[in-house]
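Explain this one:

_____
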Amino acid sequence: MIIFDFAGFAGGVMTPSPNIIASTELVSSVYPDPGGVLPVPGYPDDPNILNLVFTWVGPPFQASGGPFPDLEFAGLSALSTYSGVKLTGYSARAVTNNGTATGLPAYNVGEVGAPTVPEPRTWAMMLVGFMAVGHVLRQRGTRRGRRVQTV
């Protein structure tokens, strides 16, 4: 599963299974390969922001002899250095293991909340604010440092 444009991935992952790992890719290697997944319409993949990729590393799925119980992938989460959230797309690719479609690829797409990088004007406002605070503190320090000599 790929969550497109997952900003500030901090490496911490909470998953429902030890068989799922997370990694990041700037441009997903999973698409546009034949049979790969594509970004969700309306949520293009920004090539400057990392994508978060959850990968199954457990035992191989059985593709014949089913029906098999479903594996639960709900509750996947990851930590980010950013706290702002925006809607972005996710795409997932798996293999069907039940019924007449057994062994065929299964695709799933949707929307998900992902961390967002602060916009440049937000960074500029913070910088101006820090400079103003520094200026005020410097002025206070200068006033306190002055001594008047009387003769």
Notes: The mean pLDDT is 76.
